[in-house]
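agent: user wants the structure for DUF1150 family protein from Teichococcus coralli. delegating to structure tool.
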Amino acid sequence: MNKEGPTRSYTAADALRQLAPAEWARFGAEQIAYIRPVLVDGNQAVAIHAADGTQIGAAPDANLATAAILQHEMVPVLVH
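agent: tool returned. relaying tokens verbatim.
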């Protein structure tokens, strides 16, 4: 340990924390998708969105939405 304290390695998580909002909007747009509940014609459904927020599909439930994401070789992620 040096006088300045323990050294810390720079991680990928650190790099992601440094992204500006515009960079986040482009980050993973082609590889990452998230789902969110929506109403379609008064019925519950699940919208599928690219990482940049663009809606790219919909499904009747979360399981089918996740299956569609995986079928299109994208990675589903949780968004809170």
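agent: one observation worth passing along. Strands lie at 32-40, 43-50, 55-59, 75-77.
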